[in-house]
Protein: Pyruvyl transferase EpsO
Organism: Actinophytocola algeriensis
Amino acid sequence: MSNPDSALIASLRSEVDDALRAVLRGARRVALVNFPNHGNPGDPAIWLGTRAALRRIGVRVGYQCAWDTFSAAALRRAVPDGPVLLNGGGNFGDLYQGQQGLREHLLSTLRDRRLVQLPQSIHFRERQNLDRVRRLVAEHGDVTLLVREHRSQEIAAREFDADVRLVPDMAFGLGELPLPGTPRADVLWLHRVPGDPEHVDHGGLPDGVTGSVVEWIHEQPDEPEWRLDHRIARRANVFLRARAQSDARWARYAWRPLGATFAPLGHGWVLRGLHILGRGRVLVTDKLHGHVLALLAGVAHVVLDNGYGKVSGVHESWTHPSTLAHWADNGDEARKLALDLLTG
């Protein structure tokens, strides 16, 4: 079946390509850092969308790494000049220390290279942490900061001495996606769990429906089987990453085989996420890339907000015209909308 949001998806993909083309200013080789070496399908989707967009505009990635395998020597040898791109997402702030730690390290040490932060949502709990990053951006002097919703755009324009631009989430660079499998139940409730820094208690499934409540960063009891090439990449990634983390000198020379695992591993994680999304006839989610991947895959869904407004921000900024996505202000409204979608 055709995706009813095809025109919106094509428009957002075009916006991604145009924005990258503009900020790269004719560069033909870049470094791309902060590969998300974890199983949350949304972050690999961002990475893969970035790679797809770069290919479309004729830009080669000359160096790539995860947040914990970065080597400045390897980067400079592989990409002697040109911009350094930092993967997009929702980790610009003080909620996720690993990715933010590398970001601050690059701001303080790569003063001779233009840094382009790909579309992020910005959130700081502590003013002192925001002030530290504000100083690092100012001292660097050549930072382009792409943000994916108006709230973050306002923060960035107010706080940072940088070229700030509003750009869609890079996962839209993937374009339309096929949905594997067939639904097993009425409703899939994909949500953040207590302890997650973005958690909101929205309740659970509507009464009288079949369904399941999941958090896809956790292993599921009936995990979809990975393809052979994805399994091989996953095992190689674990081995090479551990070696790179334990031996910085080795990491200077072994980033290429490690980087070669990123795309197939990312595809494996995204395919897993799509399998999970396809388990319900209707999706209810407060996870941004539950919403984004559902839109790309043609899944009818209800969207709730996360703890600091990034989901509503992206919906208001880019995806509100969707015919597949239905906004809910709270759990009760989400349950009603899910029932309406089931019977409509």
Notes: The longest strand covers residues 115-123. The chain has twelve helices and twelve strands. The two ends are 18 Å apart (CA to CA). Residues 202 and 332 are 8 Å apart (CA to CA).
